[in-house]
Design goal:
The protein is an all-alpha fold.
Length: 335
């Protein structure tokens, strides 16, 4: 029995050593319940997950990267090695090199700031003036012009007021200063000349000639001189000043004075021509018709004179003396 027991014990010991190397038997006999098969399955699953993650992440990065395509290089064709062809090939290569040089130059160019003028501290490039700036400048100029006119008017009023308080020499210097300082203000100069025409004819003539020499094209000064010499019965000088006025600058009053001057000189046909032009502007003027009638009488044309006198009498604006004169002329032609 002891021998049998010993054999059984040896057999059990061998069986237990064999079970240590069998995972299925070890799983069943391990006291703690540790499972080697399930652990290996989990490890394999984790390994597959890691490989799949790396694969998909690499594909996503590949999609995000731009595709770089290298432009094909410009190839120079292999031409026969003659002198003319060789020169053409060299020219092509030179053009290609120049293109590369230009590209490099463009890449390296920088925008330079505008040149500053140190003397004026302003850039050499000036932007165009806006409409607002132009309007402001024009308004400023207008204000300055109005201020200058107001200043000249005050000075002229002072000259008129203080005329009797100064000598002729002192007045001459004051008016000369006015005519020089405000030479462009023609309307105020005309007022000053009209004032001098009554107060001092010598100063009037001096400053009138000064104004005509400064502005020979201005018709106002010639008209003023013609009126003065007409009033002085110097019709020749009056006609000379009127002749200096251009036709386009002749107003109604200037033309009428020219016609009167021709009548006083006995040039009635020239006077009639001017009066007939004025009739286009004032077709029912009694004064113009009366003047035409007088000129027709002077050139011995009583019928036309009578017609114009009758037309003149229809104008109710004529004064009493004018109407009385016309009636006398009509009675004379009836007899």
């Amino acid at each position: 029995m002891s021998v049998v027991n010993e054999m059984l014990n040896d057999l059990q010991k061998k069986q237990s050593k064999a079970n240590l190397f069998d995972p299925f038997i070890a799983r069943q006999e391990t006291p703690s319940g540790f499972n080697f098969r399930s652990t290996s399955y989990v490890f394999i699953a984790l390994l597959i997950a890691v490989i799949a993650y790396q694969f998909f992440s690499n594909n996503r990065k590949a999609e995000q990267l731009p595709i770089i395509v290298k432009a094909p290089a410009i190839a120079v064709p292999n031409l026969p090695k003659t002198t003319a062809v060789k020169e053409k090939v060299d020219a092509v290569k030179q053009d290609l090199d120049e293109d590369k040089t230009v590209e490099l130059a463009i890449d390296k160019t920088t925008i330079e700031p505008p040149v500053v003028n140190r003397a004026t501290s302003r850039t050499s490039f000036q932007p165009p003036v806006s409409s607002k700036s132009f309007a402001e400048n024009k308004t400023t100029q207008t204000m300055k012009s109005v201020s200058r006119i107001n200043q000249a008017e005050k000075k002229l009023v002072s000259l008129f007021r203080d005329w009797k308080n100064h000598s002729q020499l002192s007045n001459r210097e004051k008016y000369k200063s006015f005519f020089v300082d405000y030479s462009e203000l023609h309307s105020l100069k005309i007022k000053a000349l009209k004032f001098l025409k009554v107060r001092d004819k010598m100063l009037f003539g001096e400053f009138l000639n000064l104004s005509i020499s400064q502005y020979p094209e201005d018709p106002n000064y010639h008209y003023l001189a013609a009126k003065y010499y007409f009033s002085e019965k110097n019709y020749s000088l009056a006609s000379g000043y009127l002749a200096n006025i251009k036709t386009n600058d002749r107003s109604f009053n200037i033309s009428r004075l020219a016609a009167l001057t021709f009548q006083k000189q006995g040039k009635h046909q020239q006077a009639i021509d001017i009066y007939q032009q004025l009739m286009i502007v004032q077709p029912y003027s009694g004064e113009i018709n009366m003047a035409i009638g007088i000129s027709y009488e002077a050139i011995d044309n009583p019928n036309l004179a009578k017609t114009n006198f009758a037309l003149a009498l229809k104008d109710q604006r004529l004064n009493k003396l004018q109407r009385q004169f016309i009636r006398q002329r009509l009675v004379a032609h009836q007899g």
